[in-house]
Amino acid sequence: MLITIFAYMKNRFPRHSARTVGSSTRSLSPYAYCANDPVCNVDLDGRKAIRIIDEGNKTVTIKADYYVVTSDIGSLYSETKIVPGYSLSEIEELNNSISKHLNNLGLVVTNGEYSGYSVVDLTFIGADQVKAEAMATADNFEGFNIGNTFRRGDKTNHRLRREEHPDGSYTAVGGITHLKTAILMNIDFDTQMNRLHEIFHTFGFDDEQNAKGIMSYPPQNPNEKDVEILMTTPYMPTLKKPIQ
């Protein structure tokens, strides 16, 4: 499948926490995702990915685009006073490693009408903050908006601050996906599995779904249950490519 992704993850130290934060967690202005122009840039249904079924090649493509922010943002905590944006080499690594990782899992639909169909493939595009939001808003495929944003932050953002506990451990937010489209990764926990977790939020996944798969804490590789959710979730519209 062709996918554009971001994930939400909480880690607790020295052990992992099972606590979750609902997908409605807000770390951005409600207008930021539409490039600060909510009048002209209207998202009619909130959906940012589509499911393409190719009956001839027996594949399912989850198609979405991720506009990765390359510009730096200010920080109150880092020594340099900035959180660096993603470099071109990091964006190339996103395109290569995440797609390769998902493809190597050999995910296949195991039941239903499309049993035996294979599922996977991804795309990330670099842009500065303003352009990323505008490009994501304007990104349409077959009449559906499939644009998402992907950026970094640190605990300067109150949604990414860690919560201290009486026993000396703490809970840290590794990432947030705002409105299932705007991914904000915590630079301290910006790992591949956390990214995948957030990306699956852009496919409509909620933290309560399949606690043993990609939505678990810490996240595990997508499994058969996750594939079933991908195939049946009403969040994504479906396009069918007929047999040629």
How would you characterize this protein structure?
This protein is of the alpha/beta class and 244 residues long. The chain has helices at 88-104, 129-138, 192-201, 224-232, and strands at 10-13, 50-54, 59-63, 65-69, 73-74, 82-83, 118-119, 124-127, 140-141, 144-145, 147-153, 163-164, 170-173, 175-178, 182-186, 238-241. It is built from 4 helices and 16 strands. A hairpin with a 5-residue loop joins strand 12 (163-164) and strand 13. The longest helix has 17 residues, at 88-104. It is globular, with a radius of gyration of 18 Å.
For the largest beta sheet, what order do the strands appear in spatially?
8-4-11-15-14
Helix proportion range: 10-25%
What proportion strand? 15-25%
* Largest sheet geometry: 5 strands, mixed
**Total strand count, please?**
16
Distance between the ends? 19 Å
What is the count of DSSP helices, taking H or I runs of 4+ residues? 4
Let me know the average pLDDT.
Answer: 79
Spatial shape: globular
Content-based structural category: alpha/beta
H-E order? EEEEEEHEEHEEEEEEEHHE
**Structural Rg:** 18 Å
Give start-end ranges of low-pLDDT stretches.
Answer: 1-46
